[in-house]
Amino acid sequence: MAELPADKKFFENLSGAGKAIGVLTSGGDAQGMNAAVRAVVRMGIYVEAKVYFIYEGYQGMVDGGDNIVEVSWESVSSILQVGGTVIGSARCKEFRTREGRLKAAFNLIQRGITNLCVIGGANLFREEWSGLLEELAQSGKIEEEAVKKYVYLNIVGMVGSIDNDFCGTDMTIGTDSALHRIIEVVDAIMTTAQSHQRTFVLEVMGRHCGYLALVSALACGADWVFIPEYPPEEGWEDQMCVKLSENRARKKRLNIIIVAEGAIDSHNKPITSEKVKDLVVQQLGFDTRVTILGHVQRGGTPSAFDRILASRMGVEAVLALLEATPDTPACVVSLSGNQAVRLPLMECVQMTQEVQKAMDERKFCEAVRLRGRYDTSNHTHLSTNFNVAVLNVGAPAAGMNAAVRSAVRVGITEGHNMFAVIDGFEGFANGQIKEISWGDVGGWTGQGGSLLGTKRTLPAKYLEKIADQMRTNNINALMVIGGFEAYESCLQLAEARARFEEFCIPICVLPATISNNVPGTDLSIGADTALNAIVETCDRIKQSASGTKRRVFIIETMGGYCGYLANMGGLAAGADAAYIFEEKFDIRELQVVVNVVFNWPDSIVVGLFLSCYRNENSNENYTTDFIYQLYSEEGKGVFDCRKNVLGHMQQGGAPSPFDRNFGTKVSAKAVQWISKKLRETYRRGKVFANTEDSVCLLGMRRRNLIFQPVVELKDQADFVHRIPKEQWWLKLRPLMKILAKYKTSYDVSDSGQLEHVARHSPKEAETGAI
């Protein structure tokens, strides 16, 4: 196995021996909680700590007895894909009293638990802890020795909330899954609404936070949205009805209005879904229906994003407990971009409370600022109309159409004439270019594939023809949406500027590929949808083996030489191994899985599922067929083996909410960048941009969207294997191995496997990032 870079830290001396960790869930349930519970249990056991379930939240802590149970590795098998929380959640009035907390402290001390992973809050309990122990000792319920031994209580929080209403984190556990439920309903409603020319008013959760409403509105292309933090201006009723009428006049056969349950007007009066429906019926006479989604949003299987997020947070929570000192304040594990970080719990709680206070005082701009997630930037209308062309290059990826729609509509808003290029650069060379209007992209957000058509052809062989077409159509700027081919295409255009003046215009690349293999970005449009397709398929494969005692599945994912889908799919689906090109493996690696199956405990009667992911180019000799034949031969009489090649189903289907939203946001930002460059380079009636920073790739780096010259990214790309030279997700490889479904005593020195948690570089480690 390949050595990891020297700047990684491994916790070889990190030990939880002698420590006990309790895990509980509190408040409303959220999809992904079980993934967090599973990660806490397995990471805790991995570092040799005792781990306890605390059933029914704080109520179980107060009641004690069978509500606090030590668990094993197998206790959390097969819960990764289950919604809700298997250990239960309950609100507890008694815990709010000192007497209740005294009972809870006694029950924890009986089991030596002084470390809590809480999906909920418990800071007061921590502050009172020493006083509670002294009171228990004075009443004779515990010994003085116990007071000294268990003098400190460490608490780490993880936020499970579908509303995404907690300040300090980009996403809370359950939010992405809730968006999936909403979009599934919207997509289903849109077909019946179009049939009957109806208006649908959807009410989604969000009593104090409008995140679900706002993002789902972006993801489905809703006509209007109401959220608590952003009340509409006076006269909104007439404005909305005019908007709906205009859309119908453009031959749009349906209208979608999304209302957060806590939506209010500028006078703090509720805007209900029924009120909106009555308004539309009375003023426009449209056939209008109301759908209240309710607890449907909390239910169902967690998305791939939530499984990965919760797993990372659970592992980080255990590490935070092990590293805690008496002076360490209670912390909450949060997400910043693609990094899991630790933040002071009470600071985040205070900021969250300040949001509500600002809303109560009608300081809505302040509430939006504190939320920090809503982009309220204004578009600037240009005095000069420029011609901006949009095209797709490479393999199709879900979310491409959302990006094109956003580019067209934002471009028109900013005063540009927007042109669509059909079938990539090959179509460009053949003159397949047409002006595209606002209405032409209606309904594109939820469409999979590429409605413009896309091909892998690079422009190098058509440079002269493309230059002619750009001159003929007076193209002033270019947006290229696609994968590694899109990046390479724009690099070729940049390098051809000396020969063709027509290419001296602003050019922007938006990474869109399921493989997530483009240099300069951590995430690409389409990768999230592909991950969800992999995870959903794996869940079904597991169900197909119900009643089988021992079975191994070999699942091949796409990705070329990039192991992103294999690795992250394996983490999200609970695989035991993920074989990828970036990390070399040999026959000893394959032996690990065989040994695990042979040593599977007799207590497990059914449901052994070993999902061994490999991406299509991980090894030229250890192919899917080879691994399948090897396991089939070795497992005779003990287990049987099945293989599944997922193929192009990973490229198909409707885009996930994440990819719809991501494509919409990055495309809007790219158009704004193009507008800025056009203003800077417009000289004497023409555009002339010949600097490196006028041909850029817009990538997501951690939590920031950054424009990077394509020429500067050459050194970061492996053009032979079509992957970035450094990939952030490789740092998550140890997590999948630690959280593997079956713990074995296999000697890591023999296998060469890494079995210690890899941390980021020292600079990142300062923030507790993993």
Description:
- This protein has 770 residues and is α/β, with parallel strands linked by helices.
- It folds into 4 domains: 20-171 and 302-357, Rossmann fold (3-Layer(aba) Sandwich), CATH 3.40.50.450; 176-298, 3-Layer(aba) Sandwich (Rossmann fold), CATH 3.40.50.460; 387-524 and 655-718, Rossmann fold (3-Layer(aba) Sandwich); 530-652, Rossmann fold, CATH 3.40.50.
- The protein contains 24 helices and 27 strands.
- The strands form 6 sheets. Strands 12, 13, 14, 15, 16, 17, 24 and 25 form an 8-stranded mixed beta sheet that branches. It has a 7-stranded mixed beta sheet with strand order 3-2-1-4-5-10-11.
- β22 and β23 (686-687) form a beta hairpin.
- α3 (98-109) crosses α4 (123-138) and α17 (527-544) crosses α18 (564-573).
- Mean pLDDT is 86; it is low at 1-12, 605-609 and 744-770.
Layout of strands and helices, then pairs:
Elements: E1 20-25, H1 33-46, E2 50-54, H2 57-63, E3 68-70, H3 98-109, E4 115-119, H4 123-138, H5 144-149, E5 154-158, H6 175-196, E6 199-204, H7 211-220, E7 224-226, H8 236-249, E8 255-260, H9 273-284, E9 288-292, H10 304-323, E10 331-336, E11 339-344, H11 345-360, H12 364-371, E12 387-393, H13 400-413, E13 417-421, H14 424-429, E14 433-435, E15 454-455, H15 463-472, E16 477-482, H16 484-495, E17 507-511, H17 527-544, E18 551-557, H18 564-573, E19 577-579, H19 587-598, E20 609-615, H20 624-634, E21 640-645, H21 657-681, E22 682-683, E23 686-687, E24 695-701, E25 704-709, E26 717-718, E27 723-724, H22 733-738, H23 748-751, H24 762-765
Parallel strand pairs: 1-2, 1-4, 4-5, 5-10, 6-8, 6-9, 7-8, 12-13, 12-15, 12-16, 16-17, 17-24, 18-20, 18-21, 19-20
Antiparallel strand pairs: 2-3, 10-11, 13-14, 22-23, 24-25, 26-27
Function: Catalyzes the phosphorylation of D-fructose 6-phosphate to fructose 1,6-bisphosphate by ATP, the first committing step of glycolysis.
Binding site for ATP: 28, 91-92
Cofactor: Mg(2+)
